[in-house]
Known about the structure:
By secondary structure, the chain is of the alpha+beta class. It has 2 domains: 2-68 and 105-116, hypothetical protein PF0899 fold (2-Layer Sandwich); 70-102, no CATH class. The chain has helices spanning 2-20, 41-52; strands at residues 26-34, 61-67, 70-73, 79-80, 101-105, 109-116. The strands form 2 sheets. The protein has a 3-stranded mixed β-sheet, covered by helices on one side. Strands 4-3-5 form a 3-stranded antiparallel β-sheet, with no helix packed on it. A hairpin with a 5-residue loop joins strand 3 (70-73) and strand 4. Helix 1 (2-20) packs across helix 2 (41-52). The longest helix has 19 residues, at 2-20. The protein is elongated. It starts with a helix and ends with a strand. Zinc ion (ZN) is lined by residues 73, 75-76, 78, 92, 94-95, 97.
Amino acid sequence: xxxxxxxxxxxxxxxxxxxxxxxxxxxxxxxxxxxxxxxxxxxxxxxxxxxxxxxxxxxxxxxxxxxxxxxxxxxxxxxxxxxxxxxxxxxxxxxxxxxxxxxxxxxxxxxxxxxxx
Length: 117
Ligand SMILES: [Zn+2]
């Protein structure tokens, strides 16, 4: 249950944000997740519904935004956004070398935005 624990940690952050702003009811939660995290949006929604049912946050909107993969060549510094994650293991499209890429985008789960009252 990958999504359940992800959702639980996002909800922890959201609850902290709410109490910091003196709000008690979550209206909207936007989560960005990297394409590499292999998150199942439906499972995220189910986890969110299960976690908010019977709480003041029940009925809040959940927005899920998938972040594309961004890679930077560690040799020439070229940054690109491949459609296919296999680009991670392919030669750099700019210099043609097969050095490791660093991942600039597409990894991690973030609480991007929330609205509350
Ligand atoms: Zn390169």
